[in-house]
Amino acid sequence: MNRRNFFAGTATAVAASTVARSALGALPEPASQATAATAAPLAAANGQRYTPVVTLNGWTLPWRMNAGVKEFHLVAEPVVRELAPGMQVNMWGYNGQSPGPTIEVVEGDRVRIFVTNRLPEHTTVHWHGQRLPNGMDGVGGLTQPHIPVGKTFVYEFTARRPGTFMYHPHADEMVQMAMGMMGFWVTHPKGAHPQIAPVQRDFCFLLGAFDVDPGSRTPKVSTMTDFNLWTWNSRVFPGIDTLNVRQGDRVRIRVGNLTMTNHPIHLHGHEFTVTGTDGGPVPQGARWPEVTTDVAVGQMRQIEFIADEEGDWAIHCHKSHHAMNAMGHDVPTMIGVPHGDLAEKIRRIVPDYMAMGATGMAEMGRMEMPLPDNTLPMMSGQGPFGPLEMGGMFSVLKVRRDQPPGDYRDPGPFRHPAGSVAYAYESAPPPAPRQAPAATDGAAPSVRKPADPHTHH
Ligand SMILES: [Cu+2]
User: Fold this and answer.
1) pTM for this entry
2) What is the pLDDT of residue 2?
């Protein structure tokens, strides 16, 4: 992200939080975000103290106080979301983006959310994981009538427990979530909390999956498993911003999964603990170190670690197909097959035919493949040492000694200390010691077999 985009969110936030007194009886002015850049954190207000979250390639919804109630205005509407530079997708979302803005409150806050429906069909909002009156749970038909097109409904409840939550429709869910309707919700603890440590950095993102045919712009909503774009906050690598931290920071990353499969989220260079789930903080004695945590469907995981190792550390979904962009899955494997001009001959009959290279697919990270309009390469991204050969759910945790406290700007590529990068060995490899072959002149090889317990009864 560049500096200009980074602060793009701030202007919106100020504009919407200084609502004119005359407007207090009316709906809060709906804030809207025009870019997919990561917005600066929205500072706590009214004497409340917490480290605000940073929503990757997203923003936090400004609120206004109205007689002690925090008022928000969500607008469900069609949006155009840039998945990465070079690809825009027609989605449904909230307040100009998919996912919608993060809602950030403090334990005990009375919250009123106005939801205006500008979609072409009815909707509702379900506040995933919250303790609330049943009629505020947002399940269309079960706990409330659907919000008709053009209407505004009001949800009101007290944020009773601190933690990590999501919001999404409970109305024509398959379509509305496949189109990108989802958002994050964070409730900070009211004061010191025995299970919730203060952190210096707090990031959040939602896992998403979309099926957009190459050359098209609208997700196929009937797809159940065969998605071709795996997103964090409706962005794919190299469009996902990096997570920039100061060395020694305690870092929290909150991840929610609203796709139809699980995602093992893997962090390089550090161990973390899962400090919270959908159900709240994990008790201290029940935590253990991990470098990968699986986030199952409909779940949230909150991980924490001390960022004590400088560098550019990959963070990604460990399903290798999820760290790729759109590709055909019926590509024949040609590894080890010398196919010469075979692919060229087949293409005369089947114009789209593509074969995996005889030595693998890495060449595709470099190759300029002709792509349909509005389509991203299957793997892309350039690092200081060449192509990354990645896509989808992949980003980088950047740990820097000189990153100022509270500064979320991208510090650029890591400058490795001299002698600390894997290097090419230029001489002939030394002879590797090998085990001498066992004598084969009829004698049994000198291997001692363990006694088989089953022969002793
Ligand atoms: Cu995944």
Assistant:
1) 0.83
2) 41
